[in-house]
Amino acid sequence: YQNIVNSNNCPSATSYYIYVNLTRHAVCIFTGSNHNWSAIKIYSCTIGKTSTPTIKGRFTVGQKGLYFITENNLICKYYTQISGDYLFHSILYYPSGGIADSRLGMNLSHGCIRLATENAYYIYKNVPYGSGIWIQT
Hints:
The chain is mainly β. Helices cover 11% and strands 49% of the residues.
């Protein structure tokens, strides 16, 4: 993944960059600068299903929050905005705190990118607003 981002134009307003490979269900966190990124984290993720695919393209980190509640009354923790309603966030939880769906490496979501809770927390806590994001198949 490091070769992919460093051989392409991948600018960021910060020293962080996020690259997502949808085919491989992988989220890669980089530090550095354009053409000189170093991979520091690689996470497995769940992406959008066929009827509600994850968006592709180049974006920047937007709003963040501790959690939100879905239309099905499930809780998604530590969200980081990709664009509009498309987010990085945790696996799904019941309001009681139990895990509703912890599956990763699949096409199941409504378009968001689901991560293990500690990995969603890492992005929420460490990757600043304005950081570059590139999502591709």
